[in-house]
Amino acid sequence: xxxxxxxxxxxxxxxxxxxxxxxxxxxxxxxxxxxxxxxxxxxxxxxxxxxxxxxxxxxxxxxxxxxxxxxxxxxxxxxxxxxxxxxxxxxxxxxxxxxxxxxxxxxxxxxxxxxxxxxxxxxxxxxxxxxxxxxxxxxxxxxxxxxxxxxxxxxxxxxxxxxxxxxxxxxxxxxxxxxxxxxxxxxxxxxxxxxxxxxxxxxxxxxxxxxxxxxxxxxxxxxxxxxxxxxxxxxxxxxxxxxxxxxxxxxxxxxxxxxxxxxxxxxxxxxxxxxxxxxxxxx
Length: 283
Hints:
The protein has helices at residues 5-90, 95-101, 130-133, 263-277; strands spanning 105-110, 114-121, 125-128, 139-142, 148-150, 152-157, 162-166, 187-192, 200-212, 218-223, 235-237, 243-250, 258-262. It is an alpha+beta fold.
């Protein structure tokens, strides 16, 4: 049966409406999908940025914690050092200074005698008196751990009575004080091997400065700290734990008359030796 004309119009109009509805629905769905994708991308970017910002803050916090820890460690060492110095300057107890310093003191032996020396650089450079080595054919160093080392003689200066030695390895060192800062009356200790008694300590004060030595140079500290054969080449140490002189000789006819070459002259002599042998200042 043939459709009448008005029926065709009705069916055609309905089909058109359905098609238009489908197109509009498709457009709307596509818009919703695009918007959701945009929102998803924005959310992902914000999450990534938040994660990066959080990681940066964690890194900064970790860095701050490490710096704080290092500051506490440095402060603890500083306080320990200051406490030892204060303890040594206000009483006769040098135990803290001795405990730190004695590990840098060595026994210097030759085939005919022995004396003392001390480490001035962590890589094994040692200073002692030149007369400790006089007449010897071989030189050995015994460190605080009782390890014996065959030793290289870098050089010596007879006028200053200074010799520079070298052993292999790494060791704690002693710092040289500016001897211009030495004061008469300040307390000191001498560390050495008097009469073969290793790592012995004697206490005294600075009795005078700029005394004239046997080399006619006014560069010696006079001290009443007990010095005996075997102390030669050992350090004279102040309440800061720094070397103010190298114990050199005593007047045999008098009591408590020991003499040590001042630290600034030690540095001068060492650098003159190292300039000749190593072509560079050592300290």
